[in-house]
Design brief:
With about 90 residues, the protein is mainly beta. It is built from no helices and 8 strands. The strands form 2 sheets. Strands 3-4-5-6-7-8 form a 6-stranded antiparallel β-barrel. The mean pLDDT is about 85.
Amino acid sequence: MGSLAFWGGIPVSKLVNLPLRVLEGEPGKPLKIYWQRRWVRVTMILDRWYDVGKWWEGEAVKLFYRLQLEGNRVWEVFFDQEQKSWNLYKIYD
């Protein structure tokens, strides 16, 4: 995994929750992310999971990815299946 900062053995992260432009390869698989006016390449998919959120309030299922990007950055992004949109959820320091 990329070089992460740790606090008591836990990776330090920042919640962001911003909309993203994502270039996909295979359906739903992120290849590049548009960030700060340039495309950043995904070098590795570290993890992938579904989150049902507040299903009792009708919140849509989200597909989450933990990604390693060029420059050893680690981000969590999700695809909101109801809104058909990508979002940056978390950045690991």
